[in-house]
């Protein structure tokens, strides 16, 4: 896959999720229904694309122990987020209204370990892993010092208000742009130039 595709499409799918989420809540209730499902599927698509994104950043960072550990940490968070969004979709299919969804969510989250692994703690590792990779790229001078700060702003947006997820997605894309240039440049095959005998 062309690195540009993953680095651009992943934030755009997060943007789509954020916009669909806002539209889904215009009537005062989010889910169940087409908007809930399509928004969550968009985010799952983004998670799939973040795998090559992290892998390319690891390669650019030198494939060392630190970059590998950062990548693995990010992947652990990705799996937790994937589980969370799959559960959300499954719950929406099992319930006929939001009250029914809330009742099922309460049962699911009451299972020991679910809140820790799927909702509250482990998903954060996704952002920790990506930020660690970006910081490594900054220290190695592959990207400018502003890049990790813009990525952190992306992470903070949903914490301020989940309706700011689209803004965070745009900031994520902005933080990825310098990395796209570096990753694409290093991924380009070296073409041998014939010389005269």
Automatic annotation (TrEMBL):
Keyword terms of this UniProt record: Membrane, Transmembrane, Transmembrane helix
Full protein name: DUF4386 domain-containing protein
Organism annotation: Microtetraspora fusca
Domain of life assignment: Bacteria
Record field: transmembrane: 34-57, 69-94, 114-135, 142-159, 165-183
């Amino acid at each position: 896959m062309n690195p540009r595709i993953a680095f651009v499409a992943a934030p755009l799918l997060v943007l789509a999720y954020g916009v669909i989420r806002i539209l889904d809540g215009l009537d005062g209730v989010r889910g169940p229904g087409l908007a809930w499902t399509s928004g969550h599927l968009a985010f799952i698509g983004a998670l799939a694309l973040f795998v090559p994104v992290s892998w390319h950043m690891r390669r650019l960072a030198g494939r060392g122990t630190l970059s590998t550990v950062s990548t693995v940490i990010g992947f652990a968070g990705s799996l937790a987020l994937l589980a969370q969004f799959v559960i959300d979709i499954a719950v929406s299919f099992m319930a006929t209204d939001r009250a029914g969804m809330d009742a099922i969510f309460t049962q699911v989250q009451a299972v020991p370990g679910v809140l820790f692994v799927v909702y509250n703690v482990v998903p954060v590792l996704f952002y920790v892993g990506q930020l660690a990779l970006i910081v490594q790229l900054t220290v190695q001078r592959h990207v400018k010092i502003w890049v990790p700060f813009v990525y952190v702003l992306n992470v903070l947006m949903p914490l301020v208000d989940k309706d700011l997820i689209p803004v965070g997605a745009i900031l994520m894309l902005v933080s990825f742009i310098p990395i796209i240039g570096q990753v694409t440049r290093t991924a380009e095959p070296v073409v041998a130039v014939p010389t005269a005998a």
